[in-house]
Amino acid sequence: MRHIWAWPCLAVFTPTSSSPSLRTLAACSLAFPARNLAKSLPSRRVAPFALSAAPFRAATTLTAATQPQPQPRPRSVALAAAAALPYQEMETVNTSARLAALRSLMKERNIDIYVVPSEDSHASEYIAACDGRREYISGFSGSSGTAVVTHDKAALATDGRYFNQAAKQLDQNWLLLKTGLQDVPTWQEWVATEAAAGKVVGVDPTLISSSIAGKLDESIKKNGGARLEAVTGNLVDLVWGSARPPRPNQEVFFLSANYSGNDTETKLVDLRKELVKKKAAGFVVSLLDDIAWLFNLRGSDIPYNPVFFSYAIVTKDSATLYIDSTKLTTASQEYLNSIKVSVKPYDELFADTKALVADAEATAESGSIKKYLIASKASWALKLALGGGKFVEEIRSPISDAKAVKNEVELNGMINCHIRDGAALTQFFAWLEDQLINKKAVIDEVAAADKLEEFRSKHKDFVGLSFDTISSTGPNGAVIHYKPERGNCSVIDPTAVYLCDSGAQYYDGTTDVTRTLHFGTPKPEEKHAYTLVLKGNIALDKAVFPKGTNGFAIDVLARQFLWKSGLDYRHGTGHGVGSFLNVHEGPIGIGTRKAYVDVSLAPGNVLSIEPGYYEDGAYGIRIENLAIVREVQTEHKFGDKPYLGFQHITMVPYCRNLIDVTLLTEEEKEWLNKSHQEIFANIEHYFKDDPLAHAWLVRETQPF
Which cofactors does it use (predicted)? Predict the structure, then answer.
């Protein structure tokens, strides 16, 4: 999933065509509503998006006898020329001049070590182009990582999802710190070691949380360093200069209760109850998706994420939204006025914190301390502006907690949009196989991703993609968060494994699905790995666990079959997903991160289940479904606790061609057959006029 985008177009070459057929697509950047999209692409007619809720289509029970009979899988091999084309390597950027300029500024400011985080001022995982400082200075484009620059060294730390990508993108100036591997220091440990002998470490305080800054400062001093210094004015921005992209200023629109399920007034009442519990004067909100959810507004300042640059302050009797008011549509402005939410300029937030501090100081003189709450992810700069620890309490955002538990309107929307999304993916996979095998077409990874977006765009309530499509053939699939670049990507090899991780934003929900396919004859080891991953997916999907269980505790269920073969994967098993919001949504998740220990799964959570396996230089396998946490009925209720389980909502068949049926138990085959019946029942009616997709669906959902 990426934060850099370009206007995509599709070029498909067939043996009978002398020139490519081109189709311009309105991709990414989530330029909503439709009229904005039309302005940016005047040559394309854009129909307005219909703001109406889609009815839920209930699954029906389908027996093998009622399904149409399967058609044999085509086994012809595509053009040898296509298979012979080289896999494209990711490009590196020469960072020597940039590093030299940064080091010059560090010397002027008496900074020995400078830290460049990935995040923006709102702790966003995915960021606008103007905030891509770490990518600019290092050349590494992954969504997660921290760059550290000294006067003679430079290091980039990232996690296992990006080891391959970083190794290919970093030039000779950089040391790669593979976070999580044995004997490899974290970036904080590396900084502390380098800071020995009284060195000063600098960082832009708007880009690092107060808790991380405090721990880093302590570690620096413990190792003989001087201190961590909050550097005013971002040094990378100064190096970037006029080439730095401008801050986005996209339109912000109102999302009605038909999609959100709850109005802002109800959400504010609930938030103020938390203020009373904490005996707090107010909550200063800095996380962008928290603000979008709280006020039922959506924007497109960050590609693929329907959020907008803003802050908010909520007290017991007021709510203020800090945003450039010119971005608000008339309906948005009228809605905010109707619920008595004040609107002030985005840049005035830090000035207004001075008044909050003055009020808190005055209250303190009378003997009581008035504290303001901020999220634990909030920036060091925000805490400093609020007077530091005396008047600030850092907590896990109560808005994030509430947002993670979807209401019934949101859950029905997620179910409905996944049905439409599944139909689009089924149509795409059928088309792709036909092009590669029957028509012998030469299609590259980007062209395939563009075609998938075209299929999705035809469905109701489609807004845009939820992240950059990971369309990867052969060894590119082993790069966990691979991004094919237009003009520098591989041709899809029909004799190799193809991994497609993609998602979309619909007004009624957000999708994220991964399917791994093989259009020819897979190798035994590929089928073995795929089936172990599938077994892990099934095991977690079928899990039943008591209320209070966290994602850390159940992660092993998805890995167990890989572990028995001495295999594993270097990423989490699942992440929370927003409702027409960020495709990665905290605080819930399934994996080994410490943060997942602190948050129990709850009914109404929506998260991914996505085990995988990656053979460097050969192939990648991942199977990802989204699932709703539901209360389930059990024979007993030990400890008088309710028990929970998962309801998967992704409606895309699994690749029969890659399944080694001999490795499946009868119970697993039963689960697979039932899932395929459900998928067929929900999406088959979309293909009445598409015999190709219908035949593919029939074949792929036949019972084992």
Answer: Mn(2+)
Q: Fill in the amino acid letter for 528.
A: H
Confidence of residue 89 (pLDDT cuts 50, 70, 90): low
Tell me how many degrees the CA angle 425-492-463 measures, rounded to the nearest 5.
35
What tokens does 160 get?
Answer: 């296992």
> CA 449, CA 699: separation in Å to the nearest integer?
23
What does the pLDDT look like over 437-464, one tens digit per residue?
Answer: 999 999 999 999 999 999 999 999 999 9
CA 630 to chain centre: 23
Nearest-5° angle of CA 12, CA 688, CA 449? 25
The pLDDT > 90 percentage for the chain reads 82
pLDDT for res 88: 56
pTM confidence score: 0.86
- To the nearest 10 degrees (0 to 180), the angle between helices 691-700 and 408-433 is 100
Amino acid at 519: F
Alpha helices in 152-234 (DSSP H): 163-169, 187-194, 210-222
Alpha-carbon Rg for the chain, nearest whole angstrom, is: 26
Would the pLDDT of 238 be above 90?
yes
CA 651 – CA 687 distance, rounded (Å)? 14
Nearest to 302, CA basis, from 250, 260, 245: 250
Instruction: Give, in order, the Cα–Cα distances in Å from 329 to each of 261, 279, 298, 301.
Output: 21, 36, 11, 15
C-alpha triplet 146, 147, 151: angle, nearest 5°: 155
Is residue 25 within 8 A of residue 450, CB to CB? The reply is: yes
Compute, in degrees rounded to 10, the torsion defined by CA atoms 432, 435, 438, 440: -130
What does residue 252 show for φ and ψ, rounded to 5 degrees? -115, 125
Helix (H, G, I), strand (E, B) or coil at 496: coil
Contacts of residue 162, defined as CB under 8 A and 6 or more positions apart, other chains included, come to 140, 142, 144, 145, 480, 481
pLDDT in tens, 258-306: 999 999 999 999 999 999 999 999 999 999 999 999 999 999 999 999 9
